[in-house]
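Thread: "does anyone have the structure for this chain?"

Original post by V.I.:
We have the sequence but no experimental structure in hand. Need at least a predicted one for the grant figures.
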Amino acid sequence: MQNRQNQIEPEWTIIKILQWTTSYFKTNGIDSPRSTAEILLAHTLGFKRIDLYLRHDQPLNVGERNLFKSLIRRRISKEPVAYIVGSKEFWSLELVVSKDVLIPRPETECLVEEALLVLDKDKVSAPKRILELGTGSGAIILAMATQNPDQQYFASDISINALAVALNNARHLGLDEKIDLFCGSWVSPLKENNNLFDIIISNPPYIRRGDIKTLQPEINRFEPINALDGGEDGLACIKHIIKNAHKFLNKSGTLLLEIGYDQKKAVDEIIKETGRYAQASFRKDYSGFDRVVCAKKAYD
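Reply from O.Q.:
Generated one for you, tokens below.
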């Protein structure tokens, strides 16, 4: 029996396991079955994905196969790949993620791009004060800090566990001395007239509460609900931020928010009703949906 095992085990090479797993994922309705198999196998072996093909004929030992099987089971249960491997790329940065934070999305890079354009338009040499509300993994504020390290950065979150993830990422990127992190709900920890910022930026919860159960199981079963739930109409957090952020913006400071794909009209009305901002502008994401709103504080 031992001799037979020795003959069988080497046949489970990297390439054969990739082929089998891709087929298995496809049969079970897993998105991007090949790339998912590659990511999980590379994580199992401590390889880069390219190494899987450079060492395609390398067999896996029993321990490696058992670990890989456990990752396959987690993905079949719809757990997101980012949570399984513990990281996600955003803005070309490899960020640690956990179930305490949302997984960064490509469309949120549009929010970063718009904020950087706002910074680029202001040629004043003095460092700008930039605040992110609801930082989660720190993806947005860290992306900005890597591009413009000479500014002053602040970030908050209501979850102390999320702040721990953000701090971990900041340390990994060597930016922990560049960003002040604090805990609290939106602007509640701030004092009016004492904490003024040139930019306030946020990707707040904006999913309608009743729609959360209709989202992919990867989202509604694994990602933090409090980072998704925007109230009955999806606008509760957006409205709160818009109605309060102007109190903490410098003269002609800018508020930038990520919004839902169908919320442009409602958000524009909230901004107008508040009466504290100049006319808002909207930016589309890579799929053509209105995704970012930019509103300058109106002169008092």
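V.I.: this helps a lot. The chain has a mean pLDDT of 93.
O.Q.: and Residues 62-76 form the longest helix (15 residues).
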